[in-house]
Amino acid sequence: MSYLELKDVSVSFGPASNRTEVLSNLNLKVEENEFVAVIGFSGAGKSTLMSLLAGLQEPTNGEVLFKGKPIKGPGPDLGIMFQNYSLLPWLSVNDNVKLAVNKVFPELSKKEVDEKIHNYVEMVRLDHAGDKKPHELSGGMRQRASLARTLSLDPEVLLLDEPLSALDALTRSELQDQILNIWERDKRTVVMITNDVDEAVLMADRIVPLTMGPKATLADEFIVNMERPRDRHTLNDHPEFMRLKAEITRFMMNLNKEAKSLAKPVNTSMPDIAPKDFTVPSGRPQFSRNFKISASPSTPS
Ligand SMILES: Nc1ncnc2c1ncn2[C@@H]1O[C@H](COP(=O)(O)OP(=O)(O)OP(=O)(O)O)[C@@H](O)[C@H]1O
């Protein structure tokens, strides 16, 4: 039995007359304490995949299992951090974290809650902005606040949907290290979505590409056979890093080419209708000519 598993999962959206299968026949097994990165293009269905793992969405077909049981809904064991931050706009950074901590750990004293908030808000370097509301923060700061909130819940599984995409390179590196520290220290299981090949190879044990949609599916994985801790400063001299990076990049570029070659030209047929009469009503200024159109093609009268 795997810790977290997708079994023949498909997801479709839309009414029966115009249904799109966004994700098709997904199979994935994640073991406890593993760090798996899912890499894919925009619009392929990565967030939909994360919503499935977090129990926020049910598959149209197939099963999503956590410790062998179907996931029935969201819960504190499955901590998701969304790409779009999802902070409550009327609460400060500290209070966003506090609300979540109080909900998941009602037994903690006020002092313990405050310590937790301080610990995680400081970890993401937002201690100077703890009293600020989301609209007073930059995109990157919101992303960090959202990460602090997810980490503060100590979930068994961390589901990170492009958690670092809005950050500058320096902050991104720092937070990559923080996530890796938490993962190594607290022995969490992580599934992270990213579109950055370097980030995936630096952080993950396995990298699973999501093919282009519609009917996106998970392709064969790439195993990252590199010792840990991985030193970001020497990665570019590491032959395995360079090999994997080149191989994954080539694979993703081929996916893109293939999707483009399969794309059908869009022919939008226009309805065969035309106004019956363009005559300007009396009393209105007249143009030099009236146009009367009774059927297409239009014919000047
Ligand atoms: N609730 C929904 N109803 C209808 N279509 C949806 C719904 N959710 C997602 N989709 C469609 O499913 C596809 C995949 O969306 P999703 O957000 O999972 O992609 P993504 O890979 O996360 O994209 P991005 O990287 O741009 O955020 C898109 O075509 C989207 O329009």
Automatic annotation (TrEMBL):
Q: Name one Pfam family in it.
A: ABC_tran
Spell out the molecular function terms from Gene Ontology: ATP binding; ATP hydrolysis activity
Q: Which UniProt keywords apply?
A: ATP-binding, Nucleotide-binding, Transport
Asked if ATP-binding is a keyword of the record, the answer is yes
Give the ABC transporter domain ranges: 4-237
Coiled-coil stretches noted in the UniProt entry, renumbered to this chain = none
* Region (Disordered) residue spans: 277-301
SMART domains with a match to the protein in the record: AAA
Q: Does the keyword ATP-binding apply?
A: yes
Q: Where is the composition biased (Polar residues)?
A: 285-301
What is the name listed in the Swiss-Prot or TrEMBL entry for this protein?
ABC transporter ATP-binding protein
Source species of the chain: Persicirhabdus sediminis
- The organism's lineage? Bacteria, Pseudomonadati, Verrucomicrobiota, Verrucomicrobiia, Verrucomicrobiales
